[in-house]
Amino acid sequence: MWSHTQMITAFIVSAGLYAALLFVFAALPIWIIPGVTAIRPGNAIPPFTSLLFGPAAAWGSAVGNLIGFDILGGALTIGSIGGFIGNFFLGLVPYKIWHRLFKEEPHCRTASSLAKYEFVVLTHSGVVALIIPYWTELVGFVPFTPLAFIIFFNELISAAIIAPILMVLVYPRAKKAGWLWTDVMKGYQYTPTEVKSYHRLGAALVFFSGVIGLWITILVGLGLGQALFFGPAVGFAGASLLAVGGVFILIFAVGMALLARD
Amino acid sequence: MPQYVLYVEKNTFLHRLDPRTKVFLVVCVFIWSSVFNHPLYTGFVLLSVLSLVFLSRTFSQLKLFWFGLVSLALMSMILWPLFRRGGETHLATVFGVTFTMESVMYGVAVAFRLVAMVLSGLVLLTTTRIEELELAMTRLGLPYPIAFGFSAVFRFIPTMVGDGLTILAAQQARGVNIAGGNIFSRLRNSAAIIVPLFITTMRRFGDLPMAIESRGFVPLAKRSYYLSIKMRAVDFLGVAVLAFLAALSIYLRLNGFGVVFPDVI
Q1: What value of ipTM does the predicted structure carry?
Q2: Domain ranges across chain B
Q3: Which pTM was predicted?
């Protein structure tokens, strides 16, 4: 990717747009809990740019969040490492799943295209809500459970509502203008001609870890089943949570490795 | 008007340090504050970082962040005792949730840790230019295209935010209601800002690859820089002292000092 100047430009657009929208909408917060947490419409950008710019959007989401939230927002901490990794996957998972699994284009103009798009959005929201809070819990920064809850719904609501509208309006123009990542990186297919079984398995593992795994880890964080699975000798709630979350992150890594295989 | 750069032009000891030394300082603050979970120890780390804020004379720039820092600390003091259960010294039981002295102390320790980390990052950003940071990252092994993209984003953010605010004003003049209605209608209406901003940005950036390639930009080529940074004796001494203190803090932790909960970070 880095040898194509156009992909570097796409990376700058993805990162800049994400960071700029965090700024523009900061003036008009859409509160979930007034004064505590607000929905960020800018969160619709990573899945949208991911399907247009592919790998450039993955790096763009990671750097856009680093600049827009951590650097300009004055929140550069050890938590930023988890934020960088989580946002990288926020931009990577949608295009990787689509380009391996779905033969239909992500124009969101038919019910099946829209349903596939929402599936991708649900999966990527779960993945980022598993990775970032896991890191913050691991380094003793912010507890997993409340942060996972906030991130999951924040990502899901913004992306599920705004991103399909963006795709309906922009995808045909982007395709016509030759802005799609496969227009620059020749030799790759935007949608597969044949879906391979290990790609299906990879996507299933990513979905399982990101959505089902996330909620199981949240329940463990709330104290469910700890005595049953880990015995009464657990010293603190975080140990069982880190063990369970770690297993799901491992499953996610296996799923991504399968999706990366040609 | 939004603020895009945190850097404050001053001539202090911290401003004169090589950016790599300052990046290492931030890493060391992360280590010092992460290895301990006792409020006395993380409080001492926080005091050290606060002294750096005063040394760098950037206190006025940081006043924008105090509200956020206090909220962050309060959130930590409330949330951690709820989720980091453990300890034997019973303090109170509220709605069936038992609070122990250890879990409350852990919450305070993490609050100090969070504020120390955020402040150290702010010290780096208020005493280092973005160009210096980009060069330092490249020298530390970051691939040039990423570093280039990083600085280009900083260059273009004011333009993109300016476009975004113009589009916002134009759409509001046409009757698009972003500030009112329920969550779903507000989110739906925000597409009226994002779509034109994206199209405007893509039009603006359409010629960028050609423009930079015509000036000799080759993504993976070896490069020279107009700006230069150099590690001086004081930087090497600083790195040595910081590394020693990081090693000492790890040694102390391994020997049971500075912890409320020994099993966790």
Answers
A1: 0.78
A2: 13-128+230-254, 144-214
A3: 0.82
